[in-house]
Amino acid sequence: QVQLVESGGGSVQAGGSLRLSCATSPYTYSSNYMGWFRQAPGKEREGVAAIYTGGSTYYADSVKGRFTISQDNAKNTVYLQMNSLKPEDTAMYYCAADRYGGGSWYDAAAVGYWGQGTQVTVSS
Q: Distances in Å between the alpha carbon of 113 and those of 55, 65, 108?
């Protein structure tokens, strides 16, 4: 059963931090690819970070050094730690998974499963 449930979004001031969580089912967690995307109003969904089986991670240039993707195998959960948040980080954040992860990590069209999203709002 595929299950992706995000939590942890909210409103913060610029410079603040949030940690997003994506709780999954064991089946979903065994996917080769897990990632985070975001979509701001009027913009396309963009890849933020990804992690593959084996631990390889990838980040968008705009978040490198500020965001960290990680996973907890015991909890079947993927996290996105977001530090030094900026107003331009404001968006709906989505957890993503794909059993095979054969596409580019940032390609939304290659993602098989999506969570419902959690809103992140950063004020200046």
A: 20, 27, 10
